[in-house]
Amino acid sequence: MAKRILLVDDSASVRTVAGIALRGAGYEVVEASNGQEGLAQLNGERIHLIISDVNMPVLDGIGFLKEVKKHPSYKFTPVIMLTTEAGEDKKQEGRAAGAKAWITKPFQPAVMLDAVSKLVMA
Amino acid sequence: MNGSQDAPADGIFGLLPIWSRHIETSRKQTEDAIVALTARFSGIVQRIDTALNTSGTGAQQTDAHAEAQRSRQDLALVVDALKAIQLSRNELVEQIRTLSAYTAELQKMATEVDQIGFRTNILSLNAAIEAAHAGESGKGFAVVATEVRSLSNAARDTGKQITRKVGLINDALSAIGRTNEEVAARDDQTVRASDERIRAVIARFEDSTEMLAAAARRSHEESGAIKAEICESLVQLQFQDRVGQILAQVTASMNDLSAQTAHTTTEEADQAAREHADRMLSTYTTQEQKLNHQGIETTEVEQSAVTFF
Q1: Which residues contact A39 (CB under 8 A, 6 or more apart)?
Q2: What is the greatest pairwise CA distance in chain B?
Q3: How many domains would you assign to chain A?
Q4: CA of B98: how far to CAs of B109, B111, B230, in Å?
Q5: Which of chain B's ends, N or C, has fewer CB atoms near its CB within 10 Å?
Q6: Which run of H or E residues covers position B86?
Q7: pLDDT (tens digit per residue) in B95-123
Q8: What string of pLDDT tens digits covers the 309 residues of chain B?
Q9: Any idea where the domains of chain B sit in the sequence?
Q10: Whether A23 contacts chain B with CB within 8 A
């Protein structure tokens, strides 16, 4: 059974690139265009990993990450932040909120897939 | 700016909303175009994937090779069947040839019958002479001698007839042997020609399937390369996300500054601009925004840096 990944990014082009790479590697992908939509996807369905942008409208990536870590069913789901933010302060904010990895955009799909394969839940 | 303390800051600050709208329009148009382009590229990638999955090469090549192998085996069976027919006829001819040996014996037996007839004839002749010497009392014996002579002649005729018939059988067997040799030579030639034709047909079939398979392989490789190129182009299109964020920050900042400087004097506006510049630092999302702010030129963008926590 394919592992399920929740991909949260407000940029349709980024969702497309990441989606093609993930689906091509055999993952099932659920998409959301901001943190709030991402939370709506945490509806009991098993999610093996979350990839989230940081700067998004409505609910940003860090806010979304904090909510995920409070969720009884998803608090142990690994989260990768995929963002244009490369500042150390922001990275540490992500780490403190519970992110497992930080990938800066623009990203090479192979690099993202490598990180996903290392972190995806068994 | 006229530098007057009471002058309203309409000058350059008044242009901010106009520039902001231009930038926002450009940002939106670029974003729309890139999103549409990404969707089209993505569609092309999916169609290539579908084509690659349905055309598949490995399995079809294996099928073609297996089919050629099966045809080769089936046709080899036909040739084997022809050879078996040839072999069984040769066995039949061999059996007929053994009959020739019996005919030689028959010939000998027929000659012996003739010899027995000849000697019996001589014997009957002597018996007739002895009967004559016996006079009246040998008359009965003379009749017997005559009958024996007649029988011996009949035996000799039969011997000769057997010899003639055996000769005819021998001729017929020789003719069968010759005909069989001719037929066998023709059959041998036919089987060899069939074998060669079958091999040629199989070779042509294999050549054709190999050519088709090679063409399919090339097509498969080309499609894969095109897909990789398009995927790489999609990766490049990520610039929209980065540029979009920079431009969104610029327009938000312009609108913010425009609101702050509305209905203020030039001096107040200058002060507001300085304070605004400091606040801008906290709204940057990319490294190049921070470097640009400091007046450091940026060209290279670091890609795919991964940090595991």
Answers
A1: A59, A64, A67, A68
A2: 197
A3: 1
A4: 17, 21, 83
A5: N
A6: helix B58-134
A7: 888 888 888 888 899 999 999 999 999 99
A8: 444 445 555 667 778 888 899 999 998 899 889 888 888 888 898 889 888 887 665 556 667 778 778 887 888 888 888 888 888 888 888 888 888 888 888 889 999 999 999 999 999 999 999 999 998 998 999 999 999 999 999 999 999 999 999 899 889 888 888 888 888 888 888 888 888 888 888 888 888 888 988 998 899 999 999 998 998 888 888 888 888 889 989 999 999 888 888 888 888 888 888 888 888 888 888 888 888 888 888 767 766 688 999
A9: 11-293
A10: no
Range of the domain at A41: 4-119
Long-range contacts of B270-276 (CB under 8 A, 24+ apart): B270/B1, B273/B13
Closest CA in chain A for residue B227? A20
Burial (CB < 10 A; 0-12, 13-18, 19+), residue B240, is buried
- The alpha carbon of residue A120 is apart from the nearest alpha carbon of chain B, in Å, by 13
- The model's pLDDT over A23-55, given as tens digits with 9 standing for 90+, comes to 989 999 999 999 999 999 998 889 999 999 999
Residue numbers in A near B301 (CB within 8 A): 106
Of 2.40.128, 1.10.287, 3.20.20, 3.40.50, which CATH number belongs to B11-293?
A: 1.10.287
Q: CATH number, domain at A64? A: 3.40.50.2300
Q: Where are the alpha helices (DSSP H) in A1-122?
A: 12-24, 35-40, 61-70, 88-97, 109-119
B238/A91 CB distance under 8 A: no
Q: What is the pLDDT of residues B46-66, one digit of tens each?
A: 889 888 887 665 556 667 778
ipTM above 0.95, yes or no: no
Residues 6+ apart with CB under 8 A from A90: A54, A83
Cβ contact (<8 Å) for B308 and A112?
no
Q: Which residue in A100, A108, A114 is closest to B235 by CB distance?
A: A108
